Amino acid sequence: MLVVNVHSAAGVQGSTLPMPEPFGTYYYVGITSFIMPMFFLLSGLFARRSLDRGLWSYTRGKLWAILYPYLLWSVVLAGARSVLGAYANQPMTLERVASIAWDPIQQLWFLYVLMFCFLLYVLLARLPTWLHLAVAMALQVAQTGFHLGILDKCLGHYIYFAVGVALAGKAASILERMPPRQALALVGLFAVACAHYMWMMVTPLRIETHPVIGVYPQWTHVALLGIFATLAVGEMLDRWKPQAWLIYIGRLSMPIYLAHLIATAGTRVVLLKFFDLQDVTLHIILGTAAGVIFPILLFRFSKRLGAERWFGFGTA
Q: Measured in whole angstroms, how far is the alpha carbon of residue 130 from the centre of its chain?
């Protein structure tokens, strides 16, 4: 839901709507400072168990779960932006699909990098934990001198995947034993670290673009603090009162991630073109709601057809 919300806000910021600054940039950076690294860490938690089933099963599973959705939804997203035309913040044509081998479309960079992480892990799986983490850290440091597009993200994000591998079998027990005051302390530490990052890197006098914090070695601690704080708060909420609807949404992370931009962008276009809505807050709220509800409906439709896998959603 955080991913959908921040993409909805970013879409508003990139349109003609008057997003207040520097709030828009600070909000974007605050969420993205940890949200995508968290997905890589969570994926790493299950990598060893998946590989233990055998290399063929491991590879076949990743081809269906990652590569196939990447290829399918590259076509879908390029087609959707082609249909939206000038109404899209970044119009494109179907010819854009020809370059996805080295230049992923929009949010699909995550699947590209995730596939890289799972394949690289096959080569590094036999390393001791300390050496695996050291190699991952070295890759993150090395990529700062490359500037090779998606390869920078591949090398820069592997550290989070490696941390997930190192925590496999331990993360759940750590969170279950954590008292609420420690969870709140993690939230506070993350807030301080993120504020420091924003002051040093994001203020208008220092940087004019949205940096991807996850690939900066000197700011890795900010991402890790954000990840652990989020997981700790989630554990505290689950102890207090488990929410079935949140669990359901969590299980549908892949459909939501793949399809949400179509809904958020479409909602923004409709609200602007047909209702001339200029309220930024309402745009973000409605865009976020559409970005969650539309993929869920699409998943349920695919499930009714018995075609979840062919939609790139796997099973849930």
A: 26
